[in-house]
Amino acid sequence: MSRGLVFFEKIGLAGVITLNRPEALNALSERLIQDLGNVLDMCEIDPEIHCMVLMGSEKAFAVGADIKEIQSKTYMDAYLEDFITKGWEKISACRKPIIAAVSGYALGGGCEIAMMCDFIIASESAKFGQPEVTIGTIPGAGGTQRLARSVGKSKAMDLCLTGRLMDAQEAERAGLVSRVVPDTQLKEEALKVAQKIASYSLPIVMMIKEAVGRAFETSLSEGLKFERRLFHSTFDLEDQKEGMKAFLEKRSPVFKNR
Ligand code: DAK
Question: Residue 3 in contact with residue 39, Cβ under 8 Å?
Answer without folding.
Answer: yes
